[in-house]
Fold Glycerophosphoryl diester phosphodiesterase membrane domain-containing protein.
Amino acid sequence: MGGEAFDIARALKGLRWLLARDLVLILQLGVIWAVVAAIASMLSEYIPSEVQGFVGLNQLVGPFFVAAFTAAALSTNQPTLSNALKAGRLLYVQFVVVLFITFVLLHLGLKLMVLPGIALAILVSCAPSVLFREDTGIMGALIEGARLVLPRFWRVAACYLVVTVPVMVFAGLILLADQGLSLGVSTLVILSIVGVFAQVITTYLGAAIYLEATHVSRVQSV
């Protein structure tokens, strides 16, 4: 189906519906992720910089929670914390690989120019959802994800623009407030919370775009 079949408003409404449905789970799993991310960041100080340049602890932690949140977002029933954690465990290795490849592609794109990096990130944004929902394998998920996005690239890009810019502004304001008000909360904790918040929204947006693109969404109008 072509780009004209992709409804931006419906995709964004689907995102809101998914976030509202899973709010309790998001808070539960988000807290766990933020704590683990903060611990990983603290432990990273003891890892040689040469090793960190290749792979950081948070790059090993992230795929578990991205897999868990992807499974939750694409669940046809009310997702539970135990099921999300189980999905994270079962899909961990596959998500490590697919997210690492995505990271490399994004890094190479940004090395060339900023726009190619952003374009590549958008093209592979549905890969985690494809990996969870379809029996394609890792490379198949990247290829199928790009195939879903490419015909409707500008509409998908518009979704990311509408969602990620406010998220980035909100995250920036939180960091500024922490620095300006001296809230007494560790900067590391604040950074972990802000990072998790942004990644959760991005993960759910990828799922909503996948559902809209494949027209198998169970998302209902509010």
User: Anything to note?
Assistant: The radius of gyration is 17 Å.
